[in-house]
Batch of 2 targets.
Target 1
Amino acid sequence: MRRADYVVKRVGAAILTTYVAVTVNFIIFRALPGTAVTNMSHVPDSGLGLQRALAREFGLNHSLLTQYGLYLWQLLHLNLGVSFDNQQPVVSNLATDLLNSIPMVTLATVFSVLLGIATGVIAAWRRDTALEHVSVVPALGFYATPVQWLGMIIIILFSSYLPTTGRTDPYLINPTFIQHWADVMEHMLLPSLTLGLVLYGQYTLIVRSAMLETMGEDYVLTAKAIGYSNGRIVRRFAFRNAMLPVVSVIALSLGFIVGGAILVETVFNWPGIGYAVYQAVLERDYPMLQGAFLLLTVSVIVCNLLADLVYFKLDPRISAR
Amino acid sequence: MGRAMIWSKRRGLAVAALTTLALTAAGCSSSGAGGSGSGSSNAVLKVGVLQQFVNPNPFNLLNVIDYDIAQLDYPALVQYSHSQPAPDLAKSWSSTANGEVWTFHLVPGAKWSDGKPLTSADVVFSFKTDIKYASGPAAIDSPNVAGITSVTAPNPTTVVITYSSPRPAGVVLGWADITPILPEQVWAKYATGNGAALKTFPNKPPNFVGGGPYIPVEWNGTNFLLMKRNPYYYGPKPGAAEVGIQYYTTPDGIIQALKDHQIDYANSLPQSTTALLQKSGLVVNTYPSVNSISLFFNMKDPLHKEMLNPLLRRAMDLAMDRSQMISVAYPGSQPGASVVPPADGAWWNSSVTSTYNVAEANKLLDQAGYKMGSNGVRIADGHPMSYQVIFDSGLGGAADRLFQILQRNLSAIGISVSQESMDSASFSSKVFGTNNNYAGWDLALEQLAPSGDPSQALDIDSCSYVGSFNFSGMCNKTFEAMNTAQLQAVNVSTRQNIIHQMQAYLNTELPQLVLEYNTTVDAHLSNWTGFGPDPFGSLSPESKDSFTGIHEQ
């Protein structure tokens, strides 16, 4: 397959997928019962006059087709609209939420990848030994654990040692950059640990599986026959080739980093995009929901595309076609 | 071997660099609570709340916490203290005999936080802006200014408000209490054209100008607001130099923070936590609330027409074991009866009571002709008396428990109910239906939170709130006539009589069964004192005095 053809096809598919995602984004939130206006019927002093004014302000008095047209028109101008909730541009809301989520989820992902790779390699290398069970069983256990429950347990265990709520100490007055950075890191540790623990199991299993498959290949048998040590075989041959599927999973995970982690952010009161999306669903804040899901969709599509392109570069079997 | 991936040291370093970059960005993205720096950290009152504050703009007030903070940041003509109208920016007021013209005398020499004079011109500007944009950006304040024909300022400390018809004191002052007075020098430029800019102006620190006891100085946009004492405040000097308000997503989190001394005061905690808080050595204050939980009947277009039979509604009322509901789910509450709660003082009709009498309930249903079926469920119009109750999931776990008791109570009289739980937006959409037709349901369980004046508690059953706060859909000429009369009854005794009659009338019509009157629960550390009583807790949408007296011992 020519490289140009491959790239063009993948990019074209990504664009089409984005358009479909945009349309689905528009439809699914409006399929939910209730609107931002009906949600506000519980506001103190809310009367029908307020509801009518809000419906006009939010554009909910237009037909669905008109709303869809306006939505696409705004998107073409890179305008995600204004939040129904705080009346601020969705772009700035999402930017703030995203900048809060990305570091926490990135730290969790790095932790889960490194721990997953380490335990996966050990499980494959020391197959059928106690070390394999010690590696795999906790991984599966954490993977199966509800993340919000784990978060609450971690809070109970560590609340005396580390902060368990929020992103910063709000009473840290005029911190220096280092102080602020340290404060954020301190607050980030527990939510990232929680998320990392429930995620690393998937990497453990994928790496273990890929390693076992690779170690069954003929060239590994040849390497053994030559007299290479097990350690050298794992490091120089098996591990490298086993990383190909891991690259794919990591690239896909990167896309979901943008989505934040709703449950972890809720338990730890971390002001990220996941929790913002949850609130936007309850409030039927369509612009925020549409913007957040578009961001998530585009990031997943882009990361998928990147994964395909990286795979194309890394795997000679694909580029040779 | 081919071109396999090379996991070189360079790539490893690249990953490490990217990670460090992301984590460094964590430090760059927000400055954290820079604050103004107070003299001593003990001067800061750290408050935990369970509602998220997202709107510093007074035209975007959505939650009770938004109103709480607006009460502290902005003047109002009056406030409520011990549930009675009390001076705020207006130190006194009077009206003509017919209640159509109200005169407010303002505190002389008042100033905004930017040092500029706070005068009657600002009051006139605020009210006129609300009137001008009542059907648009200022719709949130439209009930507050309904019926006002003119607002004038004969001198810098006098405001005269004229209404199109007589207005009793409770109505005028009740709305005035939650109408923030805004600095004209800041807001005038946004009150032009269609007024859309009024709602989009962020109104955030450090450019915030207010006149209340506190001024926001730091807001992280999500879960923390820091306010400091306003040196120009026209009222008594607040006890705490600074106030930090921090949002917690769960009651567990806020209680743990209180126990760990991370915060000093927590507002509006679940009633079920009272005993736990006391055991933890915290000071717990409880106040009779104006909130209540009610079971609403669909009085407009129920799915099953027997809902319109008053005998059925009375029977269900008699079957409610309110004492058990309270002891299990809402310890400290009072059994519900009238729509006007006891916390409303003399407005509450104490002769409207509820009774628990299962035998009498069964007798009424037998009288209505609803025979008991073989499976213990009665039959009405050829179908089992089996109904769904639309349930607002935002009420929380205590309400689930209350529902279980309600379910058992109704089962004892041959009525089967099941819970249809949904979020608030879905709840309202289902209850009001398409074009407010209220079609497709029979029963709904919801909490009411009316303001201190009884008019809002009674509005819940009025025609003008169909599709809004009126969850039963009741629109009744007799009740409307009484409601109109009380809204124009200037004489307090006359108004009180009418309001008592309205409560008695609702007790015969029973559009809703008031199950219990809530209790507001606040808790604080023992080194703080001065927490004033209010039905909403010391942090209140209708009172400044309940909060400004708080100080460290």
Note: The radius of gyration of chain A is 24 Å.
Target 2
Amino acid sequence: MALGLSVIFGMLRIVNFAHGAMFMLGAFVAYYGLALAHLPFYPALVVAPVIVGLFGLVLEVFFLRRLYGLDPLYGLLFTFALVLILEDAMRLAAGALGSPYAPPSSLAGATNLGFTIFPTYRLFVIGVAIVVCVVVWYLLERTPIGARIRAATEAPVLVRALGIDTQQLVSITFAAGVALAALAGVLAAPNQNVEPAMGDKIIINTFAIVVIGGLGSIGGSVITGFALGLLQTLGAVIFPAFNDTLIFLLMIIVLLVRPSGLFGNPAAAK
Amino acid sequence: MTSALLGTRRGALIAAIILLIALALPWFVYPVLAIDIVAYALFAVAFDLLLGFTGLLSFGHALFWGGAGYVSTILIAKANAPFPLAVVAAVVYAALLALVVGAIAIRRQGIYFAMITLALAQLQYFFAYQLGNWTGGENGVQLTGGRGTLFGIPLENDVAFYYGVLAVAALGTYLVVRVVRSPFGAVLHAMRENEQRAVALGFRVDRYKLVTFVLSGTLAGIAGVLFAVGNRLSGLDGVDWHTSGQVVMMSILGGIGTIFGPILGAGIFEALQHYLPTVHWNVFGVVLEVGDKTNVVMGTIFALCVLLFRRGIVGELLAPRAKRAKT
């Protein structure tokens, strides 16, 4: 289910290993919020992304900003180092095994959908995922800020010449992307254990989604994300042993047939 | 600038010094740790051939390292295969894998290339995890019956095995140096500097990339076999993406495209990883223990390295000389 949300990461065009770690941090903030401050689930949905988003902003302003002029690979490597640091730091703070995080009682149990019975919490997650996707899509495609962000990713020099602070836009976008990762983390917390390694599993899938959908295509990654979520659910029923590999096989096929991704722009691929 | 040291008298001197240190290594550290260091050094050199000379960052090199390790240990442990046969099979496996993965991955560049190699490496990881009958799942494959035999001679002496590993690693490194300094290497250089021009000159760029990828993957596979058999163990760690990340860190720490750098980086990295957990300093009454914070320390070192001295240790040492040569 977090897969549906992990889609969002891709559209911000920041390829970031640390997204998995941010996802994990979001879940931990929610967990500690409940354990230490009795912060219930719903407020945690807002508080955790804000805290982690601010943390992301700090990272961007102090470290990542210094790497922009260089090969994008260095950004990738720096975030990989971040993953090592954050994961181990959390392992020290919380132990490697992880802790369960109970969903709120109002969302426990199952709902009868007529044709099938579905856990209420999962329905809630799907609902939130759809809402968030629509909101992000609206922000990026239909508002002045979104137009600027898109312009800044496509032609930063021109946008700067028009008197817009692209640096600020990039910072905001990065923080928002990180906050979304944290939101996905909070949402995933009740479904799986809150553990330091939880981000690892999700990030690889996210990469595959981005490659399949085609980077920079917002609609593409949303559709791919949901389609793959569905595929994995079906795969779990049909051949459970190799469910995890399905997504990668699909990625290989897509790369062979259409190297720029399903919804990518072939000209922009190289 | 990248290969400034290679082929010069100074380069030969450094190579000789590294070799001398390597020859003396088993007297300073445990022989098995020495095997680890040398195997990782060859791994890093193989990786450097790809990143340093074609500019392709593979984040899935554990695919070849761990995969070949599995093949060799499974053959020795389960099929009782003699050592040479197991090695050949494992290296062939790594080479074929590199051919397939390379053919897919070189369709994209830069970050996409890194992501595709990473995803494909994870594919193997999941298979290794699922096929517990063969790979032992979380426990890995242990060579409880020993390392097997080479022409009837048992390979249980760690120091002797180390010198065998060293000989292979030295040959592998020599091969990489020769490749880099060959006409083939010159084409790679041209491609990295200006790919369009290389295409315009009639070079089949993709084919050069693929050959380099296969060569790099095969060497990584050889290194992985040495490591796995040396430790009498191959496990999920070896195919995990953190291992792919480690070799990237070693290469960057030492200096990409310098060949010597990654060797140095691998040595420093392995030494840190081995000794950091035992650090227990008492500085003016403040006890400083690294213990299980090793990854935090390593991550910080690497992050600083990426932020502050991207050319790596050897690269930074060479930089002033290169500047002087220009003026």
Note: The radius of gyration of chain A is 19 Å.
